[in-house]
Hints:
The structure is a single chain. 29% of the residues lie in helices and 26% in strands. By secondary structure, it is an alpha+beta fold. The longest helix has 20 residues, at 116-135. Zinc ion is lined by residues 6, 8-9, 11, 84, 86-87.
Amino acid sequence: MGKRKCVFCARNFSSSSKRAKEHIYPSWLLSELDIKGTSIYTTHFRPFDKAQRAFFKPKRGDLRIKQISQRKHVFAGLVYGLVCEKCNNGFLNDIEKEAKPILLKMIKDRRVVLREEEQKVISKWGFKTAIILNISSNFEGYFSEETFHNFYITKQPEKNMLISIAKLSKDAKKGDYWIQARNFIFEFPELSDFYINTITDKFTGISKGLEIVPKQAKIAQDMGNNSFSIVLNIGGILIKVFYIFVGGYPVNLYEHKPGESKIWPLDNSVDINWPLEDCFKNLIDFQTNIRVRVLSN
Ligand SMILES: [Zn+2]
């Protein structure tokens, strides 16, 4: 049982193509943050009360979720085993070497101008970390085999991915390292004050919501179930790797509030002055900062 090949280069494991153990959070970072021996709990949540709560106007912090499963790890033990030594010591290591000096400056709050080149390096590193985190989690997989292989070929995040960065407030609670979720806030202009949050993964058995606005509920369900986001906390640098499924729906705009800077895709990239002035108080605020506006035609 189990796959016998590297997720990136797709070479079968053999005596000449050995398995490596890729650290999900690289060793240099664990040393820098002094969290090698720190225990972490990875928890899988699901929405509460799916029959009634699929459709509601969310309040900040009200995520209506319940715990499904939890695993305990020590940070240094968070590794992924389906990577070969060539990839691990080769292109994955090159990505670390490129990103490390930039990320270290940012973690230490040094002033640094993130130009297109730096944004590209952080995007690549954030994407790599997010896909390895996701595939090694006790959680649903967001990425296909092709995503891993394409990354190996192009050494770049896919064009339809969105990546942004933000800064975590100094007095934020310690110990939140990442979030993986499908919750987005959808805004339908024709519904005036209605926001639909598809934190639901199934959307089964909606009662009231569907009767009021079936069309929008269906759109939110479909878009939400096919979209995802992963937020990483790297010593106070927040990196969000996300994908919004557009499908055949009317014009969809993605918007965010201040404090969040897009770094991928690179088109029209603007220089970013780090440290950013606005901070987020926690990871969830940054994760739900995305608003998807669905315009009717
Ligand atoms: Zn490989």
